[in-house]
Amino acid sequence: MKRGFLVLVLAAFVVGGAFAQLEVPPLQFSVGGGFVFDGGRVGGISFDEHGESFSNHLNHIGFGGFVFLDATFAELAIAFMGGPATDHWEASWNGSSESDSHTGSFTALDFSLVGKFPIAIGGGNITVFPMLGFGYNVVLSSRDEDGYDMFEYMDDHSATDLSTFRITLGGGADIDINENLFFRASVLGYYRFAPSLFRDLADEMSEPGFSINSHGGFGATVRLGVGFRF
Questions:
Q1: Distance CA 77, CA 178 (A)
Q2: Rounded to the nearest 5°, which phi and psi values hold at 70?
């Protein structure tokens, strides 16, 4: 017991000393932009009751460009992207099963705001930073494999019903090119909450004693760009 307490006290001193060595960087503004890749699950619906199950989920892969505004401890980024989207469903009943997939495409605007704490390493030419924040992906269009609008004949829903709010966590690094110019790379993992389309479908299909669940999904964003410090 005493030994464990001493270890905790020693660990507290070590951690406190380590953070005491970190210098709070000055507030500095920068802007930039570059390439963005995003991939993961958008959301879906599912049920599993009395030996019968059904699941339907939508995944996407997006490519595009982004711009960012940085203020040392926060980064605001806006991206425009598009790419393939795959809708997949599986059903199982009475010992048999069936599944199918359809591939289409999407375009979206993506907004993210993250907090970060820069830590200089390598003589100050490289800065790394953990990142935590949130984002919102606004789907502008969604088309099937033949190029037709998936929501053209749906009065109650549109492509924007696939828009999602997410929580993000990750890290990044800046590598100085010169005093004002730098290269930035970041990787953010995220969890998307279920978009309104799947929440509405789950409510519409559920009946007393028969509940269908909506869900979001995990994914990741990779950004590579160049920035300029003021």
A1: 23
A2: -120, 140
Give the burial class of 85: count Cβ atoms within 10 A of its Cβ; 0-12 exposed, 13-18 middle, 19 or more buried: buried
Which single residue is written with the structure tokens 């199918």?
100
- Report pLDDT digits (tens) over 130-168: 999 999 999 999 998 888 888 777 778 889 999 999 999
- Domain ranges for the chain, please list them: 29-229
Nearest of 111, 219, 145, 131 to residue 174 by alpha carbon: 131
pLDDT tens column, 163-217: 999 999 999 999 999 989 999 999 999 999 999 999 998 888 777 767 788 999 9
- Locate 108 and state its tokens: 């979206």
C-alpha distances (whole Å) from 75 to each of 22, 149, 227 are: 20, 34, 12
Task: Indicate the CATH number for domain 29-229.
Answer: 2.40.160
Give the sign of the dihedral formed by CA 69, CA 74, CA 80, CA 84: positive
- pTM metric for this prediction: 0.81
Strand, coil or helix: 2: helix
The pair phi, psi for residue 117, each rounded to 5°, is -130, 105
